[in-house]
Design goal:
Elements: E1 4-7, E2 10-13, E3 16-17, H1 18-25, E4 29-33, H2 34-47, E5 53-58, H3 65-73, E6 77-80, H4 83-91, E7 99-101, H5 108-116, E8 121-124, H6 127-140, E9 144-149, H7 175-187, E10 191-197, H8 208-226, E11 233-235, H9 252-263, E12 269-272, H10 276-279, E13 283-295, E14 298-303, H11 312-316, E15 322-324, E16 332-338, E17 347-355, E18 362-365, E19 386-391, E20 394-399, H12 404-407
Parallel strand pairs: 4-19, 5-6, 5-12, 6-7, 7-8, 8-9, 9-10, 10-11, 11-12, 14-16
Antiparallel strand pairs: 1-2, 2-3, 4-13, 13-14, 13-18, 15-18, 16-17, 19-20
Helix pairs in contact: 2-9, 5-6, 8-9
The protein binds pyridoxal-5'-phosphate.
Amino acid sequence: MNYFDYKNGALYCEEVPVENIVRATGSPVYIYSYRTIERHYKVFDNAFKGVPHIICYSCKANSNIAILRAIGRLGGGIDIVSGGELYRSNAAYIPNDKIVFSGVGKTEEEIVAAIRSNILMINVESEEELSTIARIASKMKKHVPLSIRVNPEIDPKTHPYITTGLKKNKFGVMREDAMKLYDRIKAHKYLMPVGISSHIGSQILELGPFKEAVCSLKEMVKQLKEKGITLKFIDIGGGLGITYKDELPPHPDDYARIIEEELKGTELTLILEPGRVIVGNSGIFVTKLLYIKKVPGKTFYIVDGAMNDLVRPSLYGAFHEIVPVRYNDAKKINVDVVGPVCESGDFLAKDRDMPLVESGELLAVLSAGAYGFSMSSNYNSRRRVAEVLVRDAEFNVIKSRETLKDLIKGEKIPSFMEV
Ligand SMILES: *Cc1c(COP(=O)(O)O)cnc(C)c1O
């Protein structure tokens, strides 16, 4: 069952024609399917039913509070990487005891906010960060549950921009250093060692790297236990890949099986931080064809959506399938789908065979639910687009398109230039 499909020649999201949504919101627009998010979450959750676990959805993949609320309703928690994401999680009524905080550059302000909120644990990523947390905890006289994010030095064989567990990456600490940090935590009055974590990268399509990572963490848990440090949580991060084109990612059941096998006989509670696998294929980005431009040897589909709205193609050379919103089996032509932004790197697709469509028609960029809107910007003073959540036959605008006023919010002309 695919919740984005053609019926009578028109692309639908669940029971709503995409065209109807665009008529109400204008284009471009992100459209998400609630039932898809729900299904992905449940499949993932169900896969791990054999082990105690908490799913902390990685907020940065798609951080609209309606999406976070959807996760919360399904019983999920959130993995945050900033104070802003903590604020969003609170706005979405996510229980604080299901929030974990990762990230290499947590500020004092963010650490204070996290401690005040009594979150499940902070994933520490360096020795200096630990010192800062220790100082703040003592000052606040509050016990702070901590986990060390370990860099397991595993190559997840994905795009270099989205690997995080290699020696040269900025994330986590090396195994030997981690052991020393646990000693420091144990010796401190207000710090509590409760977990160990790792996150090796994103869009990972093989199980081997995950198995290696869990195995490595498990080994450390054992060593720590021998030293009298008993952990409760093992957090294996996110990273499971999805199909954009013809990738064959592991099924969550298989992913779960190899992890369960590793954890057999331990009393650890598993924490998972899936992002992309929950929301990636739950959303599309709809854009309108403005002009068809032909130059010798090349045809451009110039659309009203651009790299500021969906940066993955420009940033990673990522592939997103693009289909017309009105079913079209016309002869295919080779085109570049490009936006209005003044950068040659502004494209949604390159050398793509697409049916011949006319200016004014709508195109749907598929698999745009993760790292789409959340990575969008105002570059070229383009207003960030609207977001819509569909559930069955009903659709709700969950973020309205920015106004021109929003664009200059907070900006000020100094008095010496006032007219
Ligand atoms: C980005 C991130 C995730 C989610 O990664 P996905 O590939 O979207 O599943 C999980 N944990 C941490 C710490 C992250 O930075």
